[in-house]
Amino acid sequence: MLLFKHPKQLHRYLASLKAEGQTIGFVPTMGALHQGHLSLIQQSRLQSQVTVCSIFVNPTQFNDPKDFEKYPITIDQDVYLLEKTGCDILLLPSVTDIYPNGTQLPHPYQLGFIESILEGEYRPGHFQGVCQVVEQLLQIVTPNHLYLGQKDYQQCMVIEKLIELMGMSNQIMLHICPTERESDGLAMSSRNRRLSPTERQKSVCIYQTLQKIKAELNTIPIPDLKAKAQKMLTEEGFLVDYIEIAHAETLKPVENFDHNTPLVGLIAAYMGETRLIDNLLLRP
Ligand code: AMP
Question: Is the CB of 277 under 6 A from ligand 1?
Fold first, then answer.
């Protein structure tokens, strides 16, 4: 695996590969890698000739500075896992490499409704920061394929919108890969490392709640279902940010649906100090 620290060098190198007709698959991450990230690398390897991963803990997307400070960093292990998975190139830039003119955002991204709800509502400015870093990374890597995890459902929609705003929808094919889970169902996440053993055990309740919602969707009215889900999580010790049942393509909250409505259930909740998110497609 080749390691690049400087975006310009990587950009030049990838331009030469693209000139030879090679296709580039890209997996942006914040490191502390687990099988969820590696599944994206594996998918890229199947579809692209060259797979690039970036590890960059982006300061501008953390609305809570404590969350940024506590973000796990495991570079040696990450490099080992990427090598083992067959990643071709790792970009490991510094904050000044990504933001040579400072982290101030010159103009806000016009993301519309998608930014006003759920993660957008509970983490103000988060998606602006996500777009800021992803725009930089996409300009550096100019991938043919971009791999994102369904685990961050709303983020996938935001990045799709960003690609549209950048006028790159025809150049970049977006692939949304399934959520990798621990054997008990907990969605893999770098943040799981912060859970104490007891918290870790309780955390599976998010996935169980999503499954319960899916199982009872056709028998219980949505407001009652959400109240039941809230009770399940609270009783397990979660502090809930949101439980939402939404249209899977627009993320508009749904109270009544017909047989054609695709639905997704989304949950964000704190277990102790750790904020966890998860989602489940309820109806395709
Ligand atoms: P992160 O390092 O958390 O920014 O995540 C980098 C990429 O990995 C994002 O596209 C995430 O959606 C994806 N990802 C994170 N966790 C998982 C998971 N459990 N399964 C699949 N993809 C994931």
Answer: no
Mutate which of 40, 60, 81, 154 for ligand 1 pocket (most atoms within 8 A of beta carbon)? 40
pLDDT, average across residues 227-253? 98
Pocket flag, ligand 1, residue 190 (CB < 6 Å) = yes
Dist. CA 257–CA 265, nearest whole Å:
13
Distance CA 46, CA 142 (A): 19
Point out the least confidently predicted range of 25-29, 62-66, 152-156.
Answer: 62-66
The verdict on whether 37 is a catalytic residue reads yes
Partnered with residue 269 across adjacent β-strands are 240, 276
Verify whether ligand 1 is closer than 6 Å to residue 78 (CB atom).
no
Helix axes 126-141, 7-19, angle to 10 degrees: 50
Contact 40, 129 (CB under 8 A): no
Residue for token pair 């067959």: 86
Residue nearest atom 22 in ligand 1 by C-alpha distance: 149
Q: Is the confidence at residue 224, as pLDDT, over 90?
A: yes
Report how far residue 157's alpha carbon sits from residue 162's, in angstroms, rounded to the nearest whole number. Answer: 9
C-beta of residue 194 within 8 angstroms of C-beta of residue 273: yes
Average pLDDT for residues 30-48, to the nearest whole number?
A: 98
For 117, the 3-state DSSP assignment is: coil
Distance of CA 44 to the CA centre of its chain: 16
